[in-house]
Amino acid sequence: MSLVSHWPLAGLRLTTPRLELRLPDLDQLVALASLAADGVHDPAVQPFTVAWTDAAPEHRAQSVLQYHWRCWGAWKPEDWELNLVVLRDGVVVGTQGIGARDFGIRREVGTGSWLGRAYHGHGLGTEMRAAVLHLAFAGLGAQQAVSGAYIDNSASLGVSRKLGYRDDGIERHAVRSKPAVLQRLRLAAEQWQGGQRVPVAIEGLRECLPWFGLGEEADIQGRH
Q1: Contacts made by residues 1-8, CB under 8 angstroms, sequence distance 24+
Q2: pTM higher than 0.70, yes or no?
Q3: Where do the domains of the chain lie, and which CATH numbers do they carry?
Q4: Secondary structure (H, E, C), the chain
Q5: What is the pLDDT of residues 97-126, one digit of tens each?
């Protein structure tokens, strides 16, 4: 028996013109942890509400490993977090997450991501977000996708707006013991369908549908 027989998510693949997104194997997870240790953003700013990147490099790496293992172990069809490693030419460049609660009923997903600092500024953030949006809308039949970024995070906000998200209110948080304003964003299926999209291919989804809270017989366009 293969791993995919017991854990179908291991066979899920998303491919774009430049990237492959998949559940990481152990070596890829170690590479991702090392990437986090090398740095994810300018230390002068903090784009995350949970300031995990303020830790020492070895602790950043450990937190990446533990977070992925925790999400794997806690997976339920009614409460899941899929964290995919992002590869360019076989090299780990970052991670793209997508998650939901009661997806079979609510049909809403949230996303989050980061890239190693060496890979910023090349449009990869847009391409990897577009990949999981294709999974959500075309693959799983989502109706809504939500995201958020602090108002000084122009790169993340730019990705969202490029992909058609609309403002959905604000939240006030405390980051590094200072007030910070987070801009919420929302993308409806109709907006996604009418926008310009990155070509995305999905492999291995059918066997995973029950893991996302959907029946294998679900009539969803875009499945492969």
Answers
A1: 4/204, 4/207, 8/204, 8/207, 8/208, 8/211
A2: yes
A3: 3-212 (3.40.630.30)
A4: CCHHHHCHHHHCEEECCCCEEECCCHHHHHHHHHHHHHCCCCCCCCCCCCCHHHCCHHHHHHHHHHHHHHHHHCCECCEEEEEEEEEECCEEEEEEEEEEECHHHHCEEEEEEEECHHHCCCCHHHHHHHHHHHHHHHHCCCCEEEEEEECCCHHHHHHHHHCCCEEEEEEEEEECCEEEEEEEEEEEHHHHHHCCCCCCEEECCHHHHHHHCCCCCCCCCCCC
A5: 999 999 999 999 999 999 999 999 999 999
